[in-house]
Amino acid sequence: MRGHYRVYLPAAAWVVILLWGSVAAQAATREGIEAYQQGRFERSYQALAEASNQGDAAAQYYLARLYSRGAAVEKDPETASAWFRKAAVQGHAPAQYSLGLRYAKGYGVTRSHIRAYAWLDLAAEKGVAPAARVRDRLATHMTGEQLDAARLRKVGLEGELGSAYLSAN
To answer: In sequence order, what E strands does the chain have?
Structure first.
């Protein structure tokens, strides 16, 4: 019987550690978002950086906004885009919208109407109303070939997003 506990105790310990890490990341995210909304960007950065590195999509989105604004950190469009992408591939709709806008404008990423359309379409499907408007406006400046490529790109993104995309819908 004692040997039986030795097998499961380490596994149980890992579960507790992983759950604690998740709870800690969620608490840091809440603290970081509250600080962001209050304009306390230094504190926001500290909390959000910690949670972002643990993979929290909401934290990654707000950290991207800090880099986009240059609040508490040097303004860095490329780093902002990278954090938006990390959140977007986890199914975070506002990040998908923000990344779509960045591709449409070429801000922090190489301009691509095809990629912009694909990200905006994903965000629109999740109910981000401005994403649908921007996507539809963008489509008026695209050829039929480009729209087909954008739709194919979206299918590829859905595959890349995998369960994160499906569970968020």
So the answer is: none
Predicted structure pTM score: 0.83
- pLDDT tens profile 105-126: 999 999 999 999 999 999 999 9
State the Cα–Cα distance between residues 22 and 52, nearest whole angstrom: 11
Contacts 24+ apart (CB under 8 A), 135-139: 135/100, 138/104, 138/113
Q: Of 19-33, 99-113, 120-134, which gets the smallest average pLDDT? A: 19-33
- Pick left, alpha or beta for residue 5 (phi over 0 → left; psi -120 to 50 → alpha; otherwise beta): alpha
Count of Cβ atoms closer than 10 Å to residue 119 Cβ: 30
DSSP state of 160: H
The Cα 169–Cα 156 span in angstroms is 17
Of the candidate ranges 73-82, 130-139, 151-160, the one whose mean pLDDT is the lowest: 151-160
CA distance 31 to 46: 10
Which DSSP letter does residue 74 get?
-
Instruction: Report yes or no: 134 and 100 within 8 Å, Cβ to Cβ.
Output: yes
CA–CA distance from 78 to each of 5, 74, 81, 119, 166 (Å)? 50, 11, 5, 17, 28
Q: For residue 79, what are its two tokens?
A: 């780093």
State the pLDDT at residue 42: 97
